[in-house]
Amino acid sequence: MSDAAGTGTGNGLPPNHPQTGARKIGVLIANLGTPDGYDYWSMRRYLNEFLSDKRVIDYPAWKWQPLLQTVILTKRPFTSGANYKLIWDEERNESPLMTITKAQTAALSAALTERYGDRVVVDFCMRYGNPSTEEKVKALIAQGCTKIVFMPLYPQYAGATSATANDQFFRALMQEKRQPAVRIVPEYFDNPLYIEALAGSVTRAYAALDHRPDLLVASYHGMPKRYVQEGDPYYCQCRKTSRLLRERLGWGEDDLHTSFQSVFGTEEWLRPYTVEYVAELAKAGKKRIAVIAPAFSADCIETLEEIQGEIQEAFTHAGGERFTYIPCLNDDAAHIHALTEVIAANLAGWI
User: Fold this and answer.
1) What range does the domain containing 242 cover?
2) pLDDT tens across 333-342, in order?
3) What pTM was computed for the model?
């Protein structure tokens, strides 16, 4: 008797067995996230998810959650919502980070399709907010992806960015009956193509100016100093990124400085703080500066509002005269090329 006897399918499977198509490889890129809107409740949901992440705020829950739920989430959604409103795309009804991430995904999909055909499926998810990591993992598996390359869009590794994105990806896999094979793309801060893309953005920005800035400030997202002391490599990778960029540009040490932004809470964070540092530069006679944010793969609230708002104002109020912000790499062709090559290296042996 054949294996198919009595099944009604002719292939040895039960009559209601799920259909299976051609096997594909998924590429899932992940960014931090964005609220669904800048209204109070959208902001509160987003901030609650973000600030409840133990990778971001590692205080014991009994100590942190009462403060978060009763004080911070009562006030902060209003101030954060007002900041998001300043940069919100009303026509698309989404934040710039969402718009840019969609454009990056489309560009990467086109590049990888040109190279591999329809065997690779590219999509994106957000660590906080929508679309969720779980939703997109399910979607890739439903499309026949038996292997997934997961890429957090953070050039430098940090527990509060790369690691928590990976955590969420693995949580999503825990929900699957049949898990795909997976690979995690590591940090790429010293990848020559990434450094080349950064250098190109600086060169173009300087060429468009009618003056040469006195120096370039590379402003990275900050973190508590304690995290570095506990083993997080982020600080060292940021410093090396700055050095590699400076060397690629052929500049001296006085031409590019490193600082850290987005300080939160009462702990000491990585120094110097950008908002204070640019004011010190202005008072010291550096009246014309440029600022770049190499840790951000896409322009977002920290670059469009914080750097071009609070940080620029601090520089101007201290006597600064010319402030130039150099946009993130976003979906620039050189950036997409760098990301494509990083992904291709992680596809080796699979396709």
Assistant:
1) 192-326
2) 999 999 999 9
3) 0.92
